[in-house]
Amino acid sequence: MTDSVLSRFWTIIVNPSAAMEAVRENPRILVAVLGVVIMMGVFSGATVHISGPEQIELMQDTRFGRMMEPEQIDEMYEQYLNVTLKDRVMHGIQGGFGGAAMAFIMGLVYMLFGKLAGGQGTFKQVMGAVMWSSVISLGFGSLIKWPLVVAKQSVMGITLGPAVLVSERGALDPLFGILSFFDIITIWGVVVLVLGFESVHGFARNKATVVVVATWLLTSLVMFGIGRLFI
User: Are 197 and 129 in contact, with CB atoms under 8 Å apart?
Assistant: First the structure.
């Protein structure tokens, strides 16, 4: 299999096992990071006129929002309704690098739990596996959802999983939040990471599945719990 810089973005989709074998030999972390930054950045910049007002509306129902003056909220809302090219670029940069930073932090968590489970992978190998799985869940996932965001005029309310059954409850509803964990794109990324742990750590498939899924569920629940503190 030819493993060039660009071909890996295709291989991670059509043959993730082979892609993760290539990651074990040559992680190419910065390439994956750049892919996440570009794809999430383009998505964030292109949809800021949708996500901005939506976030402000949701914020009004949180503790932080209730502490703000109505005039402040109106001013923020107005800014998002008159988005300039500069605003889109800045929001795209923030979204892209924010997504990459989140993936890096998750990489450290997966590194910890992988080592506790007896994994033999190096820092670069594990971070490479996490970053390339993030190309799926964060990068390609953003591009896949982009048309749906435009059609529905919502970023927070878009989900490709069981949460769609309770979408009328709103993005702040706890049931919607928990079911959103099981978005198809997210699960796709988790499956790819299982293959990555199998490759870089030398785990059996069952062990890799347990370690990755348990870590993913634990971190998701922790982030969900922290988020609920501000509502």
Answer: yes
Number of domains in the chain: 1
- 184 lies in some domain: yes
Q: Is residue 1 situated within a structural domain?
A: no
Question: Has residue 153 been placed in a domain?
Answer: yes
- Report if residue 211 sits inside a domain: yes
Closest CA to 102 of 36, 20, 157, 31: 36
What percent of the residues of the chain are helix, what percent strand, and what percent coil, each to the nearest 5?
Answer: 80, 0, 20
How confident is the model at residue 31, as a pLDDT? 96
Chain mean position to CA 129: 14
Q: Per-residue pLDDT for 53 more than 90? A: no
Report the distance separating Cα 40 and Cα 98, nearest Å: 9
Domain of residue 85, residue span: 7-228
Q: pLDDT digit string (tens) for 64-78?
A: 667 777 777 777 777
The confidence score (pLDDT) of residue 136 equals 97
